[in-house]
Structure formats: structure tokens, C-alpha cells
Design a protein that fits this description.
about 475 residues; alpha+beta; Uridine Diphospho-n-acetylenolpyruvylglucosamine Reductase, domain 2; Uridine Diphospho-n-acetylenolpyruvylglucosamine Reductase, domain 3; Uridine Diphospho-n-acetylenolpyruvylglucosamine Reductase, domain 1; five-stranded antiparallel sheet; about 20% strand
């Protein structure tokens, strides 16, 4: 087979021609049909006709037209060596069509857009316009000769991953560190749906998600997040948590296994940060220990209760908490309630700090008495709060404003006409106005809008500013809650 020619596709009957019109080139072999040493490339049958066979003359410049987007497929291997030619050895910078999957099958002369990666909408790729003079043979290359380098082809592109995969790669995906490509620790999941971990069932996915069952595992995950400048969030029971509709740009952790255990030691209960507080209360009752009864009606984890300084029914976490172990990148330190700066429903724990363990120091009591107290508290909760539906609460903190006259946030919302109020798929419960329910397909934006409306009504009716108690994970527009 002659050099410079590709082998014809089997069954095609002739060599495949390059699309478009080109100037005459000298062939390295004898043209038997014309009897001379010079021949023309015949234009394809589906293109416009070239000049008359009688000779060669100057052609008009090619008209302005759009170019197709770069091919998403890798460059194919060459089918034959190219003839030697004079020149400085740079790339062939003549403008031409680049064949690819996105350009095949279309009508002659039509320029199509390459098919983009489809996820959360279609990426629009703008076609580029090339000046007619630049389309002629020998067009000036787009490079600075003084810098001595080769310029890449003007239309040579690379496919860029779209959607969340691209964001993940830019904010914590595999990166080069010291020349080596690193990857997430074993068990780390990407694009994890977080709504299943909340009781209200709203919100988007996390870029990264992992479970930590030991202090060593937790430390390794926090170090990995720090190396990649990832924000860190923690999900416990998800009973008082709102996830941004767009998800969380960072690493979300959930504590389990050894970090979710409850171990009695005399009058102490040693709990992992992921242990459920109602279970700790029940174990204390069985052991004849008092002081943690209030936790039976707080549907959260020990770590979340510490962060929020949980209290209810006259009980207070700070009274029975002995110490906590707080993990952060590179270290674990032990803190007392004084160190945690407890205030009403808050602590000084910073984002990215994780309560790994906690110790509660309780008092001795008759098991039957403690169990009776728990039963009474459960009955009160069942009578006053919604159950069996996607919900969270409490939504607002009970105000200490004297104008409230001792009324709770739920009572103020009820008096302001918020019971049963609905915005989108979110509504204030008919049973308890300080609880928000997902009445159907609510979004986090619906919940925020509902909270803003309830807050506005209480302010207009009583002049009291209710403070949200809900924890938020991700970027959520809460400006309505501050106005």
C-alpha cells in the first residue's frame, strides 16, 4: 500500500476521503488514469463540486463557518506514516475538520455541537468561529515563536467531567501530593444522599461520607479532610438537622461501632459520641442511676446533646456531664463542662470538632422510681408531640423575653395562628406548633420559608424575636430568618 494513504475500510470499495475541499497535492506515485505525475483529490460525492478537470487555478477563500466542538473521543492511532515534508517540525496548523463521534452522520456542511456529559442538565458548548483567512492553507499558528514551544491545535480539547464529580475532584478528590496521586481512605463514599439520615427527609447529598467506628478511624478521616481543605460535618440521629437542598460540600461523618457504645462503670456511663441519648437514659434507669431521665425524650445522640447543651423536663446535661473527648485534625483533647462554655442550648464547640466520647456521673436511686419517671415523660411526649411522620423539633428555642410571660415558643406560634400553617411541602404540626412536618415532598427551602413566616407572625403579634434551634448543614439561605 502506498505511503501516505490509509487502508480502505473493508467493503467500502475505495479509500475514505477527508471531508472538505483542499488544494492539489503532489502524489508520490504515477496516476494511471491521467498519465501524468500530478493528480487532484476528487471531491466527495456529497460535497460541492471542485473545479473543472482541465486544470488548476486559484480558489476563493472558504466562507466563514462555525467549527464543531472538539471530539470527546481520544485521538485514534495513525493508520500509516505521513510523507516527509519541509518545515520546522511543528504541528500542522492548517484549519481542518477533525473527525469524531460528535461530527459523524450529519448532513454535509452542517456543524453540530458535541454531546456533553449529561448530569443535572446539559452542558452547552459554544462553537468557535474561525476567520476565513485562517482557514486557508498555511494559516498563522496561534503561538508565540519567541517562546520556542509548540502550540496545541486550536480545537484540541479535553472532556471535563460535569456535575458533582467535577466539584468533588476540585474539592477533595484524588490530588497530586509530592508527585503521587492520593485517594480517599477506604470506606469513604461519594455523593452520599443525606436526607435518609434526617427525620425531616430533606436535603441533597454530601460530596463525601464516611462512618467512623473507632478513635483511630476518626482521626484518620479528620486528617484526610484537613489535607484537602474539606469542611467537616457530623450527622447523629438527624432529629433536629436541616441539610441544604444542594447538599454539603465536604466530608460528613457518622459515628458508629465503638463510638456508639454505652458502657457502665460504677455510677458512670461512658458513651460514644454516636450513642443515642434515650438509650443511655434507659440503661441508667435499669442500673438504678438518676440524673439522665430528661434524655429519654431527646431523640438525638450524645455528641449532638453535648453540642446543643440539651435539656428538657427540668433536666440539664451540664449537671451530669463529667468530661468529653473532642477530636479534631491532629489531636484529641478532654474538656469539662466549664471548658465547653455551656449556655442555653449551645456550646463553644467549633465546626469540624467532633465529640468522640462522653462520661456522665450519675447518682444512685431505686430502679423502679427511675423507670416510673421515664414512663411519665414518654407519655407526656406522646400526648404533646407528633409521631409517625417525617418531622423535626423543636424548631425555635423557648424565649427568655419577659413579653413572652412564660409561654414557650410553641405556645407563641399557636397564638400567632401558625398551627397547621403550610408553605410548599412543609407545615407546622397541628399537634404542636413548634414542630415542622414534611407533608409531602418538602424541600429545605420550604422549611426555611415556613420558619420565616412563623417568626414574622410572632414578631408582629408579640414583638418577640424567636431564635431558631435547628442545626443546618451546608449552604442554606437563612436571610429570611434574620429579617
Amino acid at each position: 500500500m502506498p505511503r501516505g494513504r490509509c487502508r480502505a475500510r473493508r467493503g467500502s470499495g475505495r479509500a475514505r476521503e477527508l471531508p472538505g475541499r483542499r488544494k492539489e497535492v503532489r502524489a508520490p506515485r504515477h496516476d494511471r488514469r491521467r498519465g501524468g505525475g500530478v493528480r487532484r483529490l476528487r471531491p466527495p460525492s456529497d460535497r460541492g463540486q471542485g473545479e473543472h478537470r482541465g486544470g488548476s487555478h486559484a480558489r476563493p477563500g472558504a466562507p466563514d463557518r462555525l467549527l464543531p466542538a472538539p471530539s470527546l473521543l481520544p485521538h485514534g492511532a495513525p493508520c500509516a506514516r505521513v510523507r516527509r515534508r519541509a518545515g520546522a517540525g511543528g504541528r500542522d496548523l492548517r484549519a481542518r475538520r477533525l473527525p469524531g463521534a460528535g461530527a459523524r452522520g450529519g448532513p454535509p456542511g452542517r456543524v453540530g455541537l458535541a454531546r456533553g456529559h449529561r448530569r443535572r442538565g446539559r452542558l452547552r458548548r459554544a462553537a468557535r468561529v474561525l476567520d476565513a483567512d485562517d482557514r486557508r492553507r498555511g494559516a498563522a499558528p496561534v503561538l508565540d515563536p519567541a517562546r520556542g514551544g509548540r502550540a496545541a491545535h486550536a480545537r484540541r480539547g479535553r472532556h471535563r467531567p460535569a456535575g458533582r464529580a467535577a466539584r468533588g475532584a476540585g474539592a477533595g478528590g484524588a490530588r497530586r501530593r509530592g508527585g503521587a496521586v492520593t485517594s480517599p481512605p477506604e470506606g469513604v463514599e461519594q455523593d452520599y444522599p443525606l436526607q435518609r439520615l434526617t427525620t425531616i427527609r430533606t436535603g441533597g447529598p454530601a460530596d463525601w461520607f464516611a462512618r467512623a467506628g473507632s478513635s483511630e478511624r476518626l482521626a484518620g478521616l479528620l486528617d484526610w479532610a484537613r489535607e484537602r481543605s474539606l469542611a467537616v460535618g457530623v450527622v447523629g440521629s438527624g432529629s433536629n438537622l436541616l441539610i441544604a437542598d444542594e447538599g454539603f460540600r465536604g466530608l460528613v461523618l457518622k459515628l458508629d461501632d465503638d463510638l456508639a457504645t454505652i458502657v457502665p462503670e460504677g455510677r458512670r456511663l461512658l458513651c460514644g459520641g454516636g450513642a443515642r441519648l434515650p438509650q443511655a437514659s434507659a440503661m441508667a434507669a435499669r442500673l438504678g442511676l438518676t440524673g439522665l431521665e430528661f434524655g429519654v425524650n431527646i431523640p438525638g445522640t450524645v455528641g449532638g446533646a453535648v453540642k446543643m447543651n440539651a435539656n428538657a423536663y427540668g433536666g440539664d446535661l451540664s449537671r451530669v456531664l463529667e468530661w468529653v473527648e473532642v477530636a479534631r485534625p491532629g489531636e484529641v483533647d478532654r474538656r469539662t463542662p466549664v471548658d465547653l462554655g455551656f449556655q442555653y442550648r449551645r456550646s463553644n464547640l467549633e465546626p469540624g470538632e467532633v465529640v468522640a466520647r462522653a462520661s456522665f456521673l450519675l447518682a444512685d436511686a431505686e430502679p423502679a422510681d427511675v423507670k416510673r419517671t421515664l414512663a411519665d415523660m414518654r407519655s407526656q411526649r406522646k400526648a404533646a408531640q407528633p409521631s409517625g411522620i417525617k418531622t423535626f423539633g423543636s424548631t425555635f428555642k423557648n424565649p427568655d423575653d419577659p413579653r413572652a410571660e412564660g409561654r414557650s415558643a410553641g405556645q407563641l406560634l399557636d397564638a400567632a395562628g401558625c398551627r397547621g400553617l403550610t408553605v410548599g411541602g412543609a407545615r407546622f404540626s397541628e399537634k404542636h406548633a413548634n414542630f415542622v412536618e414534611n407533608a409531602g415532598r418538602a424541600t429545605t427551602a420550604d422549611v426555611i420559608a415556613l420558619m420565616a413566616e412563623g417568626r414574622r407572625r410572632v414578631r408582629e403579634r408579640f414583638g418577640i424575636e424567636l431564635e431558631p434551634e435547628v442545626q443546618i448543614l451546608g449552604e442554606v439561605d437563612t436571610s429570611e430568618l434574620r429579617s
